[in-house]
Amino acid sequence: MGWEALRQWGDDVARIEPLTGGVANDVWSVRVDGRLAVARLGRRSDADLAWESALLRHLDGAGLTVPVPIPTVDARLFADGLVVMTYLEGVPPETPADWRRVAGTLRELHRLTRGWPQRPGWRSSTDLLHAETGTKVDLGAMPLEGVARCRAAWARLAGRPTCVVHGDPNPGNVRMTADRVALIDWDEAHVDVPDLDLVLPDNAAGLDDGAYDVAAQASAAWEAAVCWDDDYSVRRLAEVRAV
């Protein structure tokens, strides 16, 4: 149905302009009943969108600042691959103090989602010690030596507790004001070891040297595998030490 699905949010709704930053989705600012919002059209399954919507509503209810799905006129949280969410103002983090606030917000996310079920079709980094595929990851497409290096990095996380990780806490996915930190763009969110979220500028999460090395290696391996094989993933794989 494409953008025609936007009509399911009522008569007073209109697209305004495309927003940058999305790769897998078509993202626009929209106006719904006089309110500025964000609409995202993609190819996610209904099960995937239901998982994301439930997560965001849970986090919002627990006090975290996240985009919240705006229901259609018949109370659905998504329709035909389209999701409409609240718009969040703010600026990206810049200073070490900003990033420490981001680290605190990520740790709260991790605390609030212990025991959360895995996103449909996804695998965690430690699942991939034995599995070959999961959503965007296809280890069979990578060089065998690269797979061995990634798995060696992920093996260092084995046995650790898991929770929801945001998956891509880069500056473009953070909106800050004086009194809150908002995390946006939850496309890469899934259940995994929280360390993957904590490789932040200036080691803002305060990891000790050993923990930071484990997290940085595992994160580089994840990004190499999930994006393989564009230039960025090749650069990330080069950061993963040889076995």
Q: Can you walk through the features of this model?
A:
This protein is an alpha+beta fold and 243 residues long. It folds into 2 domains: 2-86, 2-Layer Sandwich (Phosphorylase Kinase, domain 1); 96-238, Aminoglycoside phosphotransferase (APH), C-terminal lobe (Aminoglycoside 3'-phosphotransferase, Chain: A, domain 2, Alpha-Beta Complex), CATH 3.90.1200.10. The chain contains 5 helices and 10 strands; from the N terminus they run βββαβαββαββββαα. It is globular. The mean pLDDT is 96. Keywords: Transferase.
> How many domains make up the 3D coordinates?
2
CATH hierarchy, class of the largest domain: Alpha Beta
Q: How many β-strand stretches?
A: 10
Shape assignment: globular
Could you tell me the mean pLDDT? 96
- Distance between termini? 48 Å
> Structural class from helices and strands?
alpha+beta
Q: Could you say what the CATH architecture of the largest domain is?
A: Alpha-Beta Complex
Stretches where pLDDT is under 50 for at least 5 consecutive residues are none
Please give the radius of gyration in angstroms.
18 Å
Helix content: 25-40%
Total of helices: 5
Major sheet: arrangement of strands: 1-2-3-4
Largest sheet: 4 strands, antiparallel
